[in-house]
Design a protein that fits this description.
With about 200 residues, this protein is an all-alpha fold. The chain has 8 helices and no strands.
Length: about 200
């Protein structure tokens, strides 16, 4: 009987937290979409930089994916302030990445290539953090959920985090180009495989 009474309360907490997370994620999506729209609105102001655009696409995929897989938290039976705070910080990292991709203005730089490379270390540091935080988030959903993703999941997270750290210390644009290309393709296929979008 106690379980039946507690369940609606937990669902209410989850809905409450999802609303707050949605607000932060909404700001991130708005920043990315409005940033992309600038290239259409003012094509002469900022020349498209493939590595930058690649990470914008990656982040759009990741944000949509994040919002979907966070529904797994609906099964969480015991909420604490620490979990709530962690989730807020997790979404703030997404917001930071979005702002780094599209700052308020880049007048002090020659273009997006110059801007992105000058902020490369910040961007890739936050990106590495995302993959580490994702592991914690997945574990919060429960060991069964974590193991259900298979061995590929921790390997995926480790490789992404490691490549992000390499990009922090390696200014090679060739490496960054390969990293973002493989990252976008893999992220898309990962989402399709996880949620059976193609079936």
């Amino acid at each position: 009987m106690d379980v039946d009474v507690a369940l609606p309360v937990n669902r209410d907490v989850f809905v409450h937290i999802r609303i707050i997370l949605g607000m932060v994620l909404g700001l991130s999506l708005t920043r990315l979409v409005s940033g992309m729209a600038r290239f259409v609105q003012h094509p002469r102001r900022g020349q498209v930089y493939p590595i930058h655009i690649g990470w914008v696409v990656f982040m759009l995929l990741s944000l949509v994916h994040f919002w979907w897989f966070e529904f797994g938290l609906s099964t969480l039976r015991h909420w604490t302030f620490e979990i709530y705070l962690f989730l807020i910080l997790y979404t703030i990292v997404f917001a930071m990445l979005s702002v780094l991709l599209f700052p308020d203005q880049i007048d002090d730089y020659k273009g997006y290539a110059d801007y992105f490379q000058s902020r490369r270390r910040w961007f890739y540091s936050f990106l590495a953090m995302i993959f580490v935080l994702d592991v914690i988030d997945t574990w919060i959903k429960g060991p069964e959920h974590f193991h259900a993703l298979g061995l590929e999941y921790p390997i995926r997270q480790a490789v992404f985090a490691l490549c992000s750290l390499v990009a922090v210390f390696t200014p090679s644009q060739r490496f960054q180009a390969v990293f973002v290309t493989v990252g976008v393709v893999y992220q898309a296929t990962w989402i399709f495989r996880q949620f059976n979008v193609l079936n």
